[in-house]
Design a protein that fits this description.
Elements (H helix, E strand, L loop, with lengths): L5 H20 L2 E2 L8 E3 L5 E3 L6 E2 L19 H4 L6 H17 L10 H10 L14 H10 L10 H4 L3 H5 L5 H12 L1
Antiparallel strand pairs: 1-4, 2-3
Amino acid sequence: LGRIPETALANITFQILWGLAYLKSQSRVHRDLKPSNLLINSRGEVKLSDFGLSSELQNSVAMCATFVGTFKYMSPERILNKPYSYASDIWALGILLIECATGDFPYDEGRSYIEMVQTILESDAPTLPSRRGDFSADFRQLVAQCVRKKPGDRLPADILLGSPWLRRNGAVDIASAVRNVRSWIE
């Protein structure tokens, strides 16, 4: 996986958030958001795929309580097998954004499963590299809002859709985001 430029990534992110907001409106959690479950077609449309792990929530306070999905992108609450909900998909989005922006997964992948899980649980939330000029402040802010350790501190998809980072990069509605991704592909 290579690095995706910030402008393209913002427009891809807008479409992912749009999809996550829709899932929430349908009381669904994706539960396996990762780069390989994102499809981009030649029109610039980003599609979430692999809903085999998706779960329907019975009401707004119901939580999933199963340990499924790709553990590398799992939120701390999922790793601990605690109840989880929409905020777990936001954590996965934050991890995915770091990986897409840098070309590298934010945790050391050479470790064993147990060591990686321990690192995710015990270390500070991952961040974008701090070299000045690599990433904009508003992109750093959006990523930080996604990877907060406590699920209640993560902003929901519908709020993140109003991010200054997205607006600054032309992702103001779904049509613009699709058009901008198509331009990047071409």
